[in-house]
Amino acid sequence: MSDTQDNEGIRDWEEIAPPKVYPPDFKAGFVAILGKPNVGKSTLVNRLLGYKVAIVSEKPQTTRTRLLAVLTEEKHQIVFVDTPGVHEPVHRLGEYMVRTARQSLEDADAVIYMADASGTPEKEDRQAIEFLAQAKGLPVLLALNKVDLIQQGRVDWLLEEYGKLHEFAGAMGISASQGTGLQELLDWVLARLPYSPPFYPEDEISDQPERAIAAELVREQVLMHTRQEVPHAVAVMVSEYKERSEDQLYIAATIYVEKESQKGIVIGQKGSMLRKIGQNAREQMEHLLEKKVYLDLWVKVRKDWRKRDPALREMGLVPRNR
Hints:
Layout: H1 3-15, E1 27-34, H2 41-49, E2 67-73, E3 76-82, H3 92-103, E4 110-116, H4 123-134, E5 140-145, H5 152-163, E6 170-173, H6 182-190, H7 210-225, E7 235-245, E8 248-257, H8 260-267, H9 272-289, E9 292-301, H10 309-314
Parallel strand pairs: 1-3, 1-4, 4-5, 5-6, 8-9
Antiparallel strand pairs: 2-3, 7-8
């Protein structure tokens, strides 16, 4: 090795930044968000982070897998675990979703149990709250969401009703969409996190790869624009994800449905529905990824994919070692 090469090696070594030292009072931990479907768990995550990391829709069971959303600030890092809604499963996918929600409690330091202020405790609430009994010693906050839609008297009554089902460590009304009560929620969480260095780099906001996020953004648009027959039967897989230039991406994705009739609905008359889905999904991708996106969409029928483990594994909805 020449003297020049030696010097270059020394310069390279000197340019490596030393590891960041965090103060002893830095806090970090995992917070599981649990509840029945469609209570606003993903809306809460997106609002707290200030980024869209989880898709949302008015359709129940929108979230299918565990998603980690990382909020890092000067003196703490909170890793929110967004989970599928707890429900009575009717197929293999539903069974896996409920099991995923339950397992999210295993590594949590605290739990936020979300309930919908526009309803009352139901069977699915009781099923989800039963999971809390398995997480002995975990502090659980009851977060009654959508309180902006009801009167204070009903809020107080609902907090009391849910309090009869579990001994919560705290309870409050919030509005995930409006931001009401979220600072109080964060204060409650931070008071219960352990002192620890962060688990993820400061610039990381989610554990989801970009191609998985792209697939979810397409599915979100299908949920938003199709009728009740279609949404639960839809899955999206990205087959190609590559850079065409520094500021342009090519993404090819397939929308899977279970019936020919559903395929027709997703495509629409002369392709009108598919164009709408593609245009809206592309705009979301470009906003999130800060690049131009060429999105190529296909629609295929895969009969009863929600009931078949091989299909669920291929689509990344069930771990391959199961």
